[in-house]
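Objective 1b. Sequence-to-structure analysis of Histidine ammonia-lyase.
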Amino acid sequence: MSENVVLDAPLTWKQIAAVANGAPLALSDAARQRIVHARRVVDALVERGIRGYGINTGVGALCDVVIDRENQQALSRNIILSHSCGVGEPLARPEARAVMAAQIANFAHGYSGVRIETVEALLALLNANLIPDIPSRGSVGYLTHAAAIGLVLIGHGTVDDGKGKISGVEALARIGLKPLRLEAKEGLSLVNGTPCATGLAALALSRATHLFDWADAAAAMTYENLGSQANAFAAGPLALRRSKGLDEVGASLRDFLAGSPMLAETAGTRTQDPLSLRAVPHVHGAARDALAHVAEVVDRELASLTDNPAVSGTPEAPEVHSQAHAVGAALGLAMDSLAVAVAEVAAISERRIDRLVNPLVSRLPAFLAGDSGVASGLMIAQYTAASLAAENRRLAAPASLDGGITSALQEDILTHATPAAWKALAIADNLETILSIELLAASQAYDLQPRGRAARTDALYRRIRSEIPTYADDRPLNGDFARMRTLIEGGTP
């Protein structure tokens, strides 16, 4: 069981990712008190009849329609039901857990005003691994994803319990609850803000961080196989280009290739290597620099309230503020940036795969096949990598510029933060497959030139071969891709 994540100060993206991957989440006493205080402020606003968006008014273009006190509960329930418009396959369980964790973290700032009972119900579902089915498509921002979670709280929707689908009512019963009757503002808060984008962004950062380490490993194996120059990654010359990411990648490559007999044999045979080999620190390093910037943005978002309206003050002097804090422009831009960075790492990996299988440049048997002509080897594996790299280029088009107009011109600019995060995850998934192909191709190349390898590349090669034997056109290659992906997901290189 993973260690508990305690929600007290604002969570970081790493903590959200930990919860997404199974860690329990708990509220500190201070967070609980902030939630209770904010609810008392909302109750005071309702009692005094102070106008507040979504508290005692309609939402969207109906924001000037005043809702009397008797209908405020109905408004909250109706918001959940009417906003449940998501379509498509549900998010995977880790993605859904990430969204729930970010949603609870947003409420814990103490400016939303949902009841502590509502937050505790969300926590109980999360920690019992009863995960609402959240349709992955149909959102321009956050509303439809979040509404799918709210549905379960009121006894609708469906839940994935790890074994199958159960109803929202049954899921609540398993944690000892009946469907909630939402109070004023709760319906709006449950569908509002950027937790959907923030949760998915945290998971995208986690996956990219992990895959970038494997990308360095794959590049090192390919570099060694292709007889490249031993000094291209020397610390002194690399330091002339100022980049923390470049320095990190250079150090990683030097560590992987230290003492390589294969590189010692080819030293001085070329003036310089092709860019897909020579520029690995520059491309992988730039991607790491972009990731570090995105991480700062996501952590800032997690430290911010993204509900609208925000409530503050005291029950004696309640205040409500209609701002645009739910707009996810910063996240949309950041996720578009991460998507391009991950796609770039995938693109250079695909180019390295081509160099491994292409007899015109590899000096190895064509397509790494033991019997060229009779066997195709990894010829079509490179096609698969090229296809996924091309798909990444399409996915990397900026979502944050998609725009659009909704709610009768009331919401006349859209930043598409949640779709931007979702496609960054899709690109990361493609990167994992492309890296799997490169690692398998590099291992196959080692098989065809059994000379001494560097200690670290040799250790990784042996790990791969302990799970996946040499390929001899004797089985479907996509099964090998799946096994290699499992190895990648299971640890560090």
